[in-house]
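Morning!

As promised:
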Amino acid sequence: MNNKLQLIEELESSVRSYVRSFPAVFTKARGYKIWDEDGNEYIDFFAGAGALNYGHNEPGMKKKLVDYILDDGITHSLDKATDAKVEFLDKLNEIILKPRGMDYRVMFPGPTGTNTVESALKIARKMTGRTDIVSFTNGFHGMTIGSLAVTGNSMKRKGAGIPLSHTVTMPYDNFVESDNDPLEYFERFLEDNGSGVAVPAAVIFETVQGEGGINAASMEWMQRLEKICREWGILLIVDDVQAGVGRTGTFFSFEPAGIKPDIICLSKSIGGYGLPLAITLIKPELDKWKPGEHNGTFRGNNMAFVTAAESFTYWEDPQFEKSIQRKADKVTKFLSDMIEKYPEMKGSLKGRGLMQGISSDVEGFSEKVAEHAFEHRLIMETAGGHDQVFKLFPPINIDEEGLQAGLDIIEKSIQEAVESMNLKEETVTN
Amino acid sequence: MNNKLQLIEELESSVRSYVRSFPAVFTKARGYKIWDEDGNEYIDFFAGAGALNYGHNEPGMKKKLVDYILDDGITHSLDKATDAKVEFLDKLNEIILKPRGMDYRVMFPGPTGTNTVESALKIARKMTGRTDIVSFTNGFHGMTIGSLAVTGNSMKRKGAGIPLSHTVTMPYDNFVESDNDPLEYFERFLEDNGSGVAVPAAVIFETVQGEGGINAASMEWMQRLEKICREWGILLIVDDVQAGVGRTGTFFSFEPAGIKPDIICLSKSIGGYGLPLAITLIKPELDKWKPGEHNGTFRGNNMAFVTAAESFTYWEDPQFEKSIQRKADKVTKFLSDMIEKYPEMKGSLKGRGLMQGISSDVEGFSEKVAEHAFEHRLIMETAGGHDQVFKLFPPINIDEEGLQAGLDIIEKSIQEAVESMNLKEETVTN
Amino acid sequence: MNNKLQLIEELESSVRSYVRSFPAVFTKARGYKIWDEDGNEYIDFFAGAGALNYGHNEPGMKKKLVDYILDDGITHSLDKATDAKVEFLDKLNEIILKPRGMDYRVMFPGPTGTNTVESALKIARKMTGRTDIVSFTNGFHGMTIGSLAVTGNSMKRKGAGIPLSHTVTMPYDNFVESDNDPLEYFERFLEDNGSGVAVPAAVIFETVQGEGGINAASMEWMQRLEKICREWGILLIVDDVQAGVGRTGTFFSFEPAGIKPDIICLSKSIGGYGLPLAITLIKPELDKWKPGEHNGTFRGNNMAFVTAAESFTYWEDPQFEKSIQRKADKVTKFLSDMIEKYPEMKGSLKGRGLMQGISSDVEGFSEKVAEHAFEHRLIMETAGGHDQVFKLFPPINIDEEGLQAGLDIIEKSIQEAVESMNLKEETVTN
Amino acid sequence: MNNKLQLIEELESSVRSYVRSFPAVFTKARGYKIWDEDGNEYIDFFAGAGALNYGHNEPGMKKKLVDYILDDGITHSLDKATDAKVEFLDKLNEIILKPRGMDYRVMFPGPTGTNTVESALKIARKMTGRTDIVSFTNGFHGMTIGSLAVTGNSMKRKGAGIPLSHTVTMPYDNFVESDNDPLEYFERFLEDNGSGVAVPAAVIFETVQGEGGINAASMEWMQRLEKICREWGILLIVDDVQAGVGRTGTFFSFEPAGIKPDIICLSKSIGGYGLPLAITLIKPELDKWKPGEHNGTFRGNNMAFVTAAESFTYWEDPQFEKSIQRKADKVTKFLSDMIEKYPEMKGSLKGRGLMQGISSDVEGFSEKVAEHAFEHRLIMETAGGHDQVFKLFPPINIDEEGLQAGLDIIEKSIQEAVESMNLKEETVTN
């Protein structure tokens, strides 16, 4: 191990994780490329777990950012007004919200995904006077106690050290394979007043579950969920932290379903450049916070306002969405081909947009693919409760060449994993 | 109202707060100075609520930061290894920890104060197998559910929408005036096994309570608290998010007390430049996290690593601490003089270091002082459950001239508040 | 209203309920008969909601009880040893447990159903070190906070005034009509470690849900539930408070399913004569209570020990079970006939043993039947979250004549309800 | 060990407790006397932990009870109206409540102390819309989860297996020795809105803490507590389960303090004869229960109604209270003499009325006294978190002869304990 990794091992907490899977010291990055201290070049199909949808150090944002800093623009402002903040709000409204017919108030809850989720749950409980939140199996919403209570992962839940409460978990779309009506249970629990489940303040869900295994809910499921919420006066919260900001092909991941959430949680790529930022979009009639009732030191991260405002210009061009969709189609075709070509991995296709992957029923297979990919200098993560999915998260503005290069490495890695795990023979003999 | 403030009113959530007290659109800042869009210059005695201890846009850090960005340094890395992170860890260890004889593991829990507090509570519960945390009256630790449960403020607690649990509040130093032994209660609760209070996993406290009213615990109180914790096997957590990083005159606020916390929470000024960053320092024997048991998208904010590493160089010069202390003495003398000169405000001195203020027993007085100060272009906050304290938070590297200019405005504002509230007459007639 | 009912209205809390449905002042009772102050005779198909399975004032027990009192036998003993207690334990073991091959320790948790449930949940949590309990939709387990948290009824849950926690509700058999595998959900939740549901300490269920609507679980459902519990190390608690002590035809209601619960809760008819008593049967290896870790003033109700010991003699005769079964068959046939004969009531058969009823899809119908029955001097209760079931709970030792007399009144009442609600015409016109 | 005790050891749960301290099989009892199976006679200074204030099998009640049973009076009625219940309510009102100017509704919450406490907490939370209850150090209120959450004893709290929540513990009178104003803390917590303690729904307390160590609150403390509750709109609940029904010299233990609780919990001796019964007295304006919102199978224990109604006749004679007081004075004098005569036991006087004892600072001393007393055939319990108190609980209608006989045994036992623990020598040598 080199000195720098040694130093990390000695000084950093044992909680560190990705440095274990990707043991290199990175120094530079641009677009979908990233380099380590020895000058090795990697393709990044990880994209900061969805925080780098526009790739690393996007040139337009970079220029704006450097100018802002050189000009002594405000860096930190709590929630005082700054030029940068005003421009962010204005562009968010003009470029993103208005054209989509969306009327929301923007809350700055602190600059991370878990901050926006916590703020969403608070306002939902406050506005309804109810305490329970319904979340879904394999949902992932954050690590602070409020968000962790709506997160499914058992290892992370145990990390709380206390029982997590005021939440009820319902089955996500396709959670039970034999079930042809996955929301029937939720409805039955609501309508039978002996069910033990009270009408909740809100439901919170991801349209595609990133950490939970790249599970994509169908449009019908989302529409039916919205309908149930309307019937029962339940608030609908979409956590679009990972699936939002273009990751699935549209700015908001729920657009194709035509639903209208009461509250939307955004973070990760909302800042554009990988800088910490989060916002909570709240329907005006629900925005009844008292001043300062929720706050946070870094809720006004002005550098992120600057890059975010610039990032919105991508969305002025209607071709942008189409280009993502084209690349998504390419990925879908590639993964489908792989599943067919390598039946040994017992794979199934997961996700949508540029948030796709393969779930393998062979234990350890997906992790092995990711390992081989890293040997070939492609960075790619696994997901799901048993790490059963390897997931492709290229920047959404990646060029065709970069995308193809990544896919080539992935095919090679699948092939090697099949071999190194001796799956071929096994299949033959069975 | 100007157009930009109008836009904020229309688009931003009603939860916004400081923009209400300081209705101006800020554009630039340097050191202790900040300018609005009309070019008006303000003195900043707020310092980002402790996030800007080195002032705005400190030139040395600014240079490093711009160079890093121009050079396409890694911006976002989750917890992969980067050059910037390694340098941060190395300097933190060499300049800050080692010289103070401190051996801690560094955890990156997500880049805000509430993230570090949540991580501290989790590891304390995990390591002890106990659920309760003891916090203290008027403590402030954050807005996510875990941190909010150890925060005293009733308005913010109600914002949770659910009962907050697994915590017990004990009286902070001087909470009960007549009490000459403020930790006796805590001890009695521990030693009587019919007390209804179980031995907690940890206590968490601030050495000086920033939001709670600039209440400074005495050195004896802290030492006795540490002793009680040792006797009962309770972990000692210092939340040094606001009082740390030089605010009270030493890097860690607890240094003069000679105590050795098991866990230390740092954020706000740890990044140096006002960029989101937080770390949790954990004694090595307690650092038993599983990989990824707590995580967060922005735990590797490399720009903040760059500025933080640079900020540590301040602490290489032993004169730095002394200079803070000198300025603190000046503030103490100034405020003492004010209390004597304006008995009408019924003031008492609060805090220590460059974290001082006056608590006034006259309802509304402190807010009035802050209002007048803003008219004279000095930015200063109030604190305490009834906003009874006006607090002075200049940058710790402010020069004598800036400090004096600020104090002059404050005296003028006190004088005006006494007049505008007719306190003079009132005092005469009583 | 007569004077005595007036006095009750003035002095008793508004929480009173049955006195509203059955507005008479009762004075005497014997077997299945009960008389009011005016000498009117009623047939009791309510049987103290299962607390009077042997009828009122059963002569054999009455004699033993009076002799005991006249002889100055110990009335109240906490958990000191008494002759009466020893005899109770001995007969319970010799007549009930041993012949069924059951080896359990007997706990006296306080003399009510909710006491035994609370004690069962405590020992399950203590022995497993887990906090969650899985209960089932429409389960009813008691009114104290621990038991209420596993009870489904929403009105009663709201009565807690606090959120109820540390429990998860799963669908009971037939809760979702279209579902042909009602335990699949529970299994999926257990096996997917991203489900948000932790492996619980225990499941608690009733084999036939009395208050919840006379829902009878199938034998297969119970067997499969036991299997799941064994696989996952989950304790199996049967709450046999209402369905036990012969109500379904065997002493324990789960006997036909062949399952072996880890903990069994008994109350209501366990005392034989309607006197407060409850016991918790615990497998010896789980009986790791510390002395006094759970206690209660009336856990040694010796008069109930005396009558209970006598009541066990019923079970020495193998004909007793058969006689209950015969009467149950008669009730089944009668109710089936009614459903066929009066299609207007849209009825379906519920329950088993002498715990049967009809669930009517016509709103208010079942309550109307019970009202008419009371006019004809038969006492009968409704059940279910919407009072949609009228339920027949005759004493299990009722004679044929009494049973027939009761059924005759019920038919008459159904007929009248159909008429008074104009269901006949409605059916015709539809 | 004899056969019967052997059988208990084999069949009864390990949770059994008193049978361990008093290893005899009891068969008969009358007044203050109790006999074991070998005909040995014991003096009972335990009185069913306060459930047998009128002694065992009081002849007047016994006669009424036997007549009622022989006459086939209703035994079990849920909450239907019965003659026995009407008479109970009428006499309670006429003999006990009205003469004391008390206007309360009577709730039957189930027949044990913990049932009445749970019902009191529910209605308090429901009526105030608040969740927290304030209880006091060393309070004891019951074993079900709601009551356990307001109980101080740590061993019993741990038995819950879950964290207990929605409660805050405040220091009882004299909890902190040096404190001359024990309610100042509570007031400070209420008035400082940064205290972390919300205004609670209610406070619940015992005027004399029975299990907690025979701690008697001063009249001033109770009056001040009532005043605080009125100022803050907090409901005042007195748990008079153990101290009520004459135990301290008046029917309600709080009478001498002149306070007017909003809710009063009664059980133990309210039934008169040692039969399970509990009632909750609720101010009419707070009695807003929905029908059946709280219920319980044995809430109508008619045999206990019969004996209770008879027991109230004791209170028709004004001499009764005086006779208790006379005996209490005798006990006070006796215990004071003992403390003086045997300084080796480092004793202090505890309690009031016929609920007194000595707290010894010598570890194990009080248990030793109780052991010796049992050898001399007097039954007496210890109390307090460390069993540091031996407590005298004779029946309140005991005659002078019986009382003296008991005191003689106690003196002998103290003397023997001093000797057997070698305290005399120790004292000499020190």
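The radius of gyration of chain A is 22 Å.

Hope this helps with the figure draft.
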